[in-house]
Amino acid sequence: MSARGRCAKVLPSELNKVCPERGDDPATHPRKMSDFEVVPNLQQSSSSVSKSRRKAHFPAGSNEKENLISWIPENIRKKECTYFVESSQTSDSGRIICECGYLREQHLDDAAKPPIFLGKEWDPSRHIQEMPTDAFGDIRFTGLGQKTGKYVRVSSDTPPRVIYHLMTQHWGLDPPNLLISVTGGAKNFVMKPRLKNIFRQGLVKVAQTTGAWIITGGSHAGVMKQVGEAVRDFILSCSHKEGEIVTIGIATWGTVYNRESLVCPMGGFPAEYVLDEENQGSLSCLDSNHSHFILVDDGTHGRYGVEIPLRTRLEKFISEQTKVKGGVAIKIPIVCVVLEGGPGTLDTIYNAITNGTPCVIVEGSGRVADVIAQVANLPVAKITIALIQKKLSVLFHDTYELFTESKLVEWTKKIQDIVRSRQLLTIFREGKYGQQDVDVAILQALFKASRNQDHFGRENWDHQLKLAVAWNRVDIARSEIFTDDHDWKPSDLHPVMAAALISNKPEFVKLFLEQGVRLKDFVTWDTLVYLYDNLAPSCLFHSKLQKVLLEEREHTAGSKMPRLQMHHVSQVLRELLGCSTQPLYPKPKHTERPRLSIPVPHIKLNVQGSSLRSLYKRSPGRVTFTMDPVRDLLIWAVVQNRKELAEIIWAQSQDCMAAALACSKILKELAKEEEDTDTTDNMLALAEEYEHKAIGVFTDCYRKDEERAQKLLTRVSEAWGKTTCLQLALEAKNMNFVSHGGVQAFLTKVWWGKLSVDNGLWRVITCMLFFPLLYTNLITFSREKRLQPMGCLARLRAFFTAPIVIFLMNILSYFTFLLLFAYVLMVDFQPMPSWREYLIYFWLFSLVCEETRQLLYDPDGLGVVKMASLYIKDFWNKLDICAILVFIAGLTCRLIPSTLYPGRIILSLAFIIFCLRLMHIFTVSKTLGPKIIIVKRMMKDVFFFLFLLAVWVVSFGVAKQAILIHNEERVEWLFRGVVYHSYLTIFGQIPSYIDGVNFNIDQCSPNGTDPYKPKCPETNADNKKPIFPEWLTVILLCLYLLFTNILLLNLLIAMFNYTFQQVQEHTDQIWKFQRHDLIEEYHGRPPAPPPLILLNHLQLLVRRGLLRRPATRHKLKEKLEKNEEAALLSWEMYLKESYLQHQQCQEKQNTEQMIRDIAQRVDVLAELLDLDRVKRTGVVEQRLGSLEDQVHQSAQALRWMMQALRGNGFSSGEDVPPVGSSKALDTKEIDLEGRPEDSQPPFHVLARNLLYPGSHTLRFPVPDEKVPWEVDFPLYDPPAYSADHKDMAVQDPFSLSLESLLKINYNTMDGLIDRQSFHGLYAVQDGLPLNPMGRTGLRGRGRLHCFGPNHALHPVVTRWRRNLDGSIIRKSLKKMLEVLVAQYPLSDVWALPGGSLEPGETLPLKLKWILRREFWPQFQNLLKQGTEVHKGYLDDPRNTDNAWVETVAISVHFDTQNDVEMKRLNSFLQGCDPELCIRWQVLDKRIPLHANHKMLLHKVSTLLGAYY
Fold first, then answer.
1. What whole-number distance in Å separates Cα of residue 631 and Cα of residue 652?
2. 1089 close to 813: Cβ distance less than 8 angstroms
3. How confident is the model at residue 432 (pLDDT cuts 50, 70, 90)?
C-alpha cells in the first residue's frame, strides 16, 4: 500500500500520542470548516510561543517543536476522498483511478465500502472530508547541501488568518513590509539573458531592501524557477545576515511529485525531499530555493490550479494587516509581478486589477505579458478583437489553434478592463527603464497606484511616505513623493520623522530636514520621552535608564515601575558627562505633567498610549518645547552609537564645538561599561572622530579671530549643563584638543595673567625679589601693550596676582619651609620646641587652611560631597593629606616626652612625603613634566612586577632556609633569611654560609641564642663542618639568579622601556594636557604664599561668613551677555559650515574616494552604452518595420497596375514577376511609447463588470465594439439573473416567463411605477426592454426592482471651503468646494445623499434616513431652487440588458457662509441616524465615492467654476 494509505490509517492513533486530548476518529466524525472558524488554540499558542524571530530549525525536543506538533493538527486540516467512484480515465500506468484522481489503495479502508447514504454520483462537497493534516515540519532537499525550509499541507478551505498565524508565530517570520506576488508561466520558458539578469537583480533587491515576502507557485519550473534561482544567486553573493529573503511557494498538494516523503503525522524534522525532474511526468517538483511551502489540498490528484483561490484569499488577508514599525502603522501593500504566462495568468492579472492590486508586466518575457504590454498604451477603443487575435497568433503560435471565438471575446474584454485601469498597470520595458532596474518599477507601481487611489485629504500622500520609510528607499521618496504634485508642510512630516529616527534611517532624516522640518518645532518634551521610550533594549543606555527607574521604585517603595521622564535621562547623562555639569533636564516640580492624546486612526502606537501624530497635534499652550532641540536629538543618537544619524544632527547644531566634545565624553564613558568589544571599539572610534570635529572647528575659528576663539573655550554653555568647552575636553581627556596651539596660547595667557607673555622668566624673578623694579620698564603689562597706562598700585596688584608670580612665590615659600623643616630635624630638635619649630607648625597650619579652602571652594554649587570626591581624585591632594596626617601624628608623639624619639622618626617620614610633593611643581616644566608621568606609570609597572618577583623570592628563601637552618624560631631572623637575604642576593650580596668554602662558625650562633647573629646551618658534631648538600644550594642559587637577574629584571627593564616610549611619543601632548591643572590651581589660588596666605583666608572668611557675599568665580569660565553669545554662536556656526565643506572637498580629493567615483562613473557609462545599444536596436527594428510597410505598399501598387494592364489586354499573364506576398501586415506597428489618454468612454463600463455585485453570477464578456445592439454579435448568450427583494413592496417578477412579462406596460406610467425613459422610447424584445446604452452581458433585472428604467434622485449639496477667517480657499486659482457625503450602514464606500426613488415617492429612502422628517418639505424646496446638472442614464454596476438606472442630479449650492438654510440643514443632520456617517468633504477628483457619483461632482464643479 502506498504511503498515502498507510499514513491515513496510522494518523488517528499517532495523533493521540501527540495530542492526548483528542478522542474521536476524524474519519468517523468529519469536521467542517465552520467548526474550525474559531481556531481553538490560537490564543494559547500565541502566549506560549515567543514572538521574536526564530532560527531556521527547531532544536530536537525543544518547546517550540512540541508546540508546533500539537498546534498544527488541531488547527490545520487536510482533505481525503472518502468514497471511491471509478473514473472513465486511467492513471499514467493504465490503472483504475477514482474520480478524485487517486488509486483505490490510496484511499481510506472505508472508502471502498461506502454507506448507502453517500449515493452513486461522486460529489466533492459530500465525498471529500477534512481531517488533521499529516504533512508539516522542515523540508530538506537531498543532495543540495543544507537547504532547509518549512512546509505544511493545508486544506483548500483553511482560513487565511490561520496560515498567517502559523507563518508569523510558529515559523517565526516577521510581518512583511511588502508582499510581492509573482505569477506567470508554469512551464519553462526562455528569456533574454539581459532581461533575465535585470529581473533577478531587481526582484531580490526590492525584497531585500524592503523586507518583503515573495509568493510564487513554489514548483521547480517556469516563473517559480526563475524566482528561486534569483534568490539563490543573491544568497550566494551575500553574507548570511543579508541573504535572508522570505520566498513562499503556494502549490497544489495533489500535483507535487515525491510528496509521499513529506507525509509524517508527527511532523518531519526534517523530511528528506528528492528533486527528480526526469521522472516527474505530469506532476511537478518543489523548488529547492524557496524557504517556505504551503501545499494546498482539495482531496484530488493531478489537478492544477487548486491553490489559486486560497492564495488569493491569503494575499488579500495579508494586505489588510497593519504593521507597526518605528511608531508608524502601514497596511501591508501588495504588488503582482507578471512574467510570460497563459490563460490562468490573464485571470490572475484581471482579478488583481479588479481588487485594486497594482501589477508590473515584464515586457519581453513572452505570451500574456507581451500581449498586455504591447496594447497597454493604446486607447481602449483601439483594442479590438481583431487586434487581440493578431497578437495571440504571433505570441501563442504553438497553441493558437486552441483559442475559440468565444475565448477571443473573453480575452479582449478582460484585456480592455485591465488597460482601462492604467493607474494599476505598470509595464517594465528594458529599453525604457534602462539602468533603473525592476525594483524601481515595482515600487513606482505601488506609488502610482497609491497616488491614483481615491482618498480623503492627504491620507494618500501620508501612506506613500510611510511606505517609503518602511522600505528605507529614500531614492523613491525623492523621485516619487517629494515632487511638485503635493506641497508638504513641515508639520506633516513630524510623525514620519520620528519613525525614521527610531528606525535609524539617517537618509530619511536628512531628506526631511531638506524638506523644511525644523527641529525646534519637531522636538517637544513629549517627543523626547517617546524617543527614549523606544530605545533599543540592547542599548547600554537603556539598561542604565532601567536601573535608575528600579532605584526610584525601591526608593518610593512602590510596586509599579515609574514612567520614564526626562529627569531620569538627565540623571544618567550627568553620570556620563561628569559632575562639573548641571542637570540637562531638571526634575519638574509636579511629578505628573498633563499629556494630550489625540489618536489618529491611520498612524498608531505610542508607548504611553498616545499616537505619534498626537505628539504634534496639540494646543500651543500645552506643548513644552526644549531649550536646545538639536542637542536633545544629538544626545539621543549618540547614546545609541548611531554614527550617521548623529553626524546629520551635529551638522545642524549651533553650539557645535561643545556638542562634539560632550559627545566624545559620553561615548568614552559608555565604552568603559560596554561589554561587547566591537561596540566598544566603535564607540571609541566615534569619540575620537568627534574630538577631531571639535579640533577642526576650533582651528578655523582660531585662524579667523584668536580672541573670539578663546572666548568659545571659556563661554558658559547653558545647553550643556553650564560648563565650558575646555572643561568638557578635560573631563573627556581629549589630549589632542587641549594640546591644540590655540588652547595652549589661551592657557599661557592665563598663566601670565595681566603680564605680557613676552616677559622673560628672569625678569619676573628679579622683580619678585626687588619689587621696586616694577615701576621701571623691566616688566611689561598687556594693557600697556594696548597703550592703556597703569597706575603704581595697579601695576603692583597686576604683578602679584599673576598665576606665574603666585606659583614662583609658592615655590620660594615651599623651599623655605623644607629648608627650615630639615634644619629643625637635623640640628634644632629639642625636648621643648624652639621658635623655629613653632614657625614650622604655623606654616603647616597655613597649608592645612589652604587645603581646606580647596576642599570647600564650590562656586558651581556641586555640594560638599561632590567637591570632596573631586578633591580626593587628585593624586597630589592625596599626597598632601598623607603628608599632613603623618606630620600631625609625628607632632603628637613629639609633644609627649616619652615618645619624643618616635615622633622625630615620624616627622622625618613626613619630610620625605613633603619632598615628594615637589614633583608637582615640575609639571610646569616641558622637560620634567612628562618624566613625572613616566615615573607614575612605571610605579604601576613595578607594582605588578613585584607579584612575579615575590614568587621567586619567597620560594627560594623558604627552600634555602629549610635546607640550611634547622628550626629557627626567631621571627625577625626568619624574615631576614627568607625575604631580606633572598632580595639582597639579586643585587650580588650572596650569603657566605650558602656553601661550605666560606663558612665561618664565628659569624653565626650555633643554638640561635645570640640576638645579633643568625643561627648556624646544620654542622657536623665533631669538626663543626657544615653537612648540608652544597651542590643543591649552589644549583638553586644559580637558577634563582638566572630567573631573577636575567629574566625578571630584564622584563622589568622592557616594561619600563615600553612605558617610556609610549609616553615619549606623546610627550608634548601629555605636558600640555597636565599643565592645565597647575594653571587652574594657581589662577584661583590666593596671591600670598604660606604662611602669609592666612591673611587671604581671613579676608575670605570675613567676606563669606560675615558679609555673606557669594564666592568669586576664579575658574576659567565666562558668562556672556545674550547678544554677545548669540553673535559668537552664529560666527561659530558659520565657520562650522566652512569646515564641513572643506571636509567634503578633502574626501572628494582622497585617492580611494576618487577611485570609487571613477569606478561608479565607468559603471554608469557602461550601462548607458548598453542602453544605447538596446535603443539603437529598437530604432533599427522600427526602421525595418517602416521599410517593410513601404515595400508592401509598393507591391500592392504594382499588383494593381499589373492587374489594370492585364485587364486592358497588355499582357497575357505569362512570365509575370512576383511582387510580394498577400499575407503582409495590414496595419502599422503600434507605437508603444506614447500614452494617449482615453476620452470619456462612449459605452457604459461599470455595467459590464464581469462579476455582478451582490451575487456569484458572471456576466457574458462584452468588448467595447460589441456593446451597441446594432452590432451583430452571434455568440452573445448572456445568463439571466433577477434577485428576489423580500423587503420591497413593489418589484417586478424575477422569472422571465412570457406570461408574467406581458402584464408590464413599458414606456409609460405603469400604476405607481414610472417606466418612461429620459432618453425617449426604448425597444422591447420578447417582453423585455432593451438597455438603450447597449449590451451588459446579463439578462433579467439583476438587483434592481423594475424592468426598464429605475429612477433615482441624487442631490449634490455643496458649499465653499473657507479659512478660519471666512475667506474662500483657492487652488490653481479656482475656488474649492465642500460636498455633503454619507456612508450608509453595512457599506464601506462613501456616496452622495440620494438613491432610488420608491414608486410614488419624491425623495429617496436613503435621503430620508439622513434628514429628519420635519425638514423634508424644506429640502424639497431647496431641490426646486437648485440647478439640474444631469438627467438620464447612470452607468451603474447593477444595470442589466433589461433594467437600468436613470437619475436626476440637482446641484444645491450654499454660496454664503451664513446661509440660514445651510445652518438648518446642519442642525438636522446632527440629529440623524447614529449608524450613518455624514461629513462635509473637500471636493476633488480623488474623493472616494462611487465612480458614477464622481461624474456628477465633475459636472457640478464645472457648473460653479470650482476646482476639481
1. 9
2. yes
3. low
Place of cell 439578462: 1339
At residue 996's C-alpha, the angle toward residues 995 and 1002, to 5°, is: 110
**pLDDT band per the 50, 70, 90 thresholds, residue 2:** very low
The least confident of 428-437, 729-738, 1122-1131, 1475-1484 is 428-437
Long-range contacts of 974-983 (CB under 8 A, 24+ apart): 976/1014, 977/1014, 978/954, 979/953, 979/954, 981/957, 982/953, 982/954, 982/956, 982/957, 982/1040, 983/953
Neighbours of 1023 (CB within 10 A): 6
**Grid cell at residue 828:** 634644632
1280-1282 and 148-155: which strand pairing?
unpaired
Distance CA 216, CA 311 (A): 9
For residue 1473, what are the contacts with CB-CB under 8 A and spacing of at least 6?
1409, 1410
The dihedral region occupied by 595, where left means phi > 0, alpha psi between -120 and 50, and beta the remainder, is: beta
pLDDT at 153 over 80: yes
* pLDDT at residue 1173, rounded to an integer: 61
Amino acid letter at 473?
R
CA 1156-1157-1162 angle, 5° bins: 95
Q: What is the pLDDT of residue 83?
A: 83
Q: How far apart are CA 895 and CA 44, in angstroms?
A: 84
* CB neighbour list of residue 1158: distance below 8 Å, 6 or more residues apart: none
What one-letter code names the amino acid at 429?
R
Please provide the DSSP assignment of 109-173 as one string: GGGGS--GGG-SS--HHHHEEEEE---EEEEEETTSTT-EEEEEEEETT--HHHHHHIIIIIS-P
Which residues neighbour 1427 within 8 Å (Cβ) at sequence distance 6 or greater?
A: 1450, 1451, 1453, 1503
1471 contacts: CB under 8 Å, gap ≥ 6: 1412
CA distance linking residue 1414 with residue 1422, whole number of Å: 14
**What one-character DSSP code corresponds to residue 104?**
G
Long-range contacts of range 97-102, CB-CB < 8 Å, 24 or more positions apart?
Answer: 97/301, 98/122, 100/124, 100/127, 100/128, 100/299, 100/300, 100/301, 101/254, 101/300, 101/301, 101/302, 101/303, 102/4, 102/300, 102/301
Q: What is the Cα–Cα distance from 416 to 353, expressed in whole angstroms?
A: 12
Mean pLDDT, residues 1304-1323:
89
According to DSSP, the β-strands at 425-428 and 1443-1454 are: unpaired
1275 closest CA partner among 1288, 1259, 1294, 1262:
1262
- What is residue 611's predicted lDDT score, i.e. its pLDDT? 46
> Is the pLDDT confidence value at 1178 over 70?
no
CA distances from 1445 to 1209, 1243, 1316, 1395, 1440 (A): 65, 15, 12, 10, 9
Q: Kindly give the pairing relationship between strand 322-325 and strand 334-339.
A: unpaired
- Full-model pTM: 0.70
How far apart are the C-alpha atoms of 751 and 319, rounded to whole Å?
72
pLDDT in tens, 1396-1412: 888 878 888 778 777 77
CB 375 within 8 A of CB 419: yes
Question: What cell does 896 get?
Answer: 609627649
CA distance 407 to 413: 10
**Which amino acid, one-letter code, is at 1019?**
T
3-state class of 1416 per DSSP? helix
- The pLDDT tens digits of the residues spanning 566-616 come to 889 999 998 898 877 888 888 876 544 433 333 333 333 333 334 444 454
- For the chain, helix (H) and strand (E) counts, in that order, are 52, 30
Task: Provide mean pLDDT across the span 1030-1055.
Answer: 84
Which among 575, 502, 521 has a CA at the least distance from the CA of 543?
575
Largest Cα–Cα distance in the chain? 166
Backbone phi and psi for residue 54, each to the nearest 5 degrees, phi listed first = -100, 170
